[in-house]
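=== RUN LOG ===
request id: a7f3
mode: sequence -> structure
chains: 1
length: 197
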Amino acid sequence: MESEMTDIVFDIKGDLVPLGYPFLLWDEITKTLPWLNEEAHAGILPLKGAASNEGMLLPKRTKLAIRIPEKFAQQALPLSGKRLDIEGHFLEVGQGKKRAIEAYPTLKAHIVESEKIEASFMEDVERELGELGILCKLICGKRQSLKYGNETISGYGLVVHDLKPEASIRLQQVGLGNFRRFGCGIFVPHKTIAGLD
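=== RESULT ===
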C-alpha cells in the first residue's frame, strides 16, 4: 500500500510569478525541505492565478499547497516564514496547516505528462486507472506545456468524473504520470465538468 498522503496548505503573499514557476518553486522549497527530493509522490499543487504577458498574477488569497506523505506533515511546517525567490519575484510564506484529502466525484489535473498523441495518452490513462481499480469517466483537455529555460514538460489537462469515494481518494493519493514535483498528475476537486482548459 502506498503512503497515505495529505496536503499542507500555506498562506502566501506575492503578486506575480513567471509562467515557468513550477521548476523554480520546487528548487526554492527544497532548500528548506530537502527531504522532498526523496519522495517520489510528493508534489506541489499548481498555484491558482491568471496568466498575463508578465507572468502569472496571483490573487490575494492564493495558497501554496504541497502534497506529501502524512508521516512527514510536521516536517513541512518549517516552510512557514520563508521568503521564496522565484526569479526576482518573492513569495512570503505564512502559516501552514494540514488539509486532509477528501472524496469528490469529480477531480481535475492541470496537466498529466505525456509525449504521446491524445488517443494514445487516453489509452495509457485508462490502463493506469484500470491497474488502480478505478472506474470513472474521462474528459481530456487541450495539450499544454510547462517551460523554463531548456526544460519542457508536455501533457494534457484531464478531468475524471463519476468517481466513487474510495476511488476518488485513491486517485488523489497516487496521481498519474510523472513530475508530481512540478504539479503534474496531481488531482484536486473540480466542481463542474464544463469549461475544461
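=== NOTES ===
Residues 118-131 form the longest helix (14 residues).
Helices lie at 21-32, 73-76, 118-131, 165-174.
=== END ===
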